[in-house]
Amino acid sequence: MALEYWETLPFWLFRVAGAVLAPLLFLEIGPEWMIGGSTGGLVWGTLILSVAVIIPIGAIFINLFVELGGLDFVRPMARPIMRPLFNIPGRAALDSVASWVGSYSVGFYVTRSVFDRGE
């Protein structure tokens, strides 16, 4: 049973605070402790921007890779390495490489795509 969006009552405060603080951090408005290089500046400059780039680009390329036969291309090449080392089939090789090398969200996306297709 899925929860309604605002049903998680204590956590709606975090959503509202994030909606208020994100534009302030972006515009560098606020006290130094909030926008300084060790706090908000670090979060905005590294975490948010890198996630905003990695996830969409990774989703596009991984989706193309999964849907256009990339898994079928990688499977025979990865099987001789992945089977003895980890006892997994070649199809799972892309999952594991995407999770290790890339973002965990890209690995999750690949796993979810393969699962939804019933493979």
Oligomeric description of these chains: single chain
Average pLDDT over all residues: 76
* Protein structure class: mainly alpha
N/C terminus separation: 25 Å
Strand content: under 5%
Q: Element order, helices and strands?
A: HHHHHH
Percentage of residues assigned to helices: over 70%
What's the number of helices? 6
Radius of gyration: 20 Å
**β-strand number:** 0
Shape by Cα distribution: elongated
Domains, number: 1
Instruction: Note the main sheet.
Output: none
Low-confidence stretches: none
Transmembrane segments: 12-30, 42-66
Keywords: Membrane, Transmembrane, Transmembrane helix
Description of the molecule:
This protein has 119 residues and is mainly α. The chain has one domain (13-116). It is built from six helices and no strands. The relative contact order is 0.08.
How is the secondary structure organized here?
Elements: H1 12-26, H2 32-35, H3 40-67, H4 70-86, H5 91-101, H6 104-116
Keywords: Membrane, Transmembrane, Transmembrane helix
Transmembrane segments: 12-30, 42-66
Task: Explain briefly what this protein structure is.
With 119 residues, the chain is an all-alpha fold. Helices cover 74% and strands 0% of the residues.
Tags for this entry?
single chain
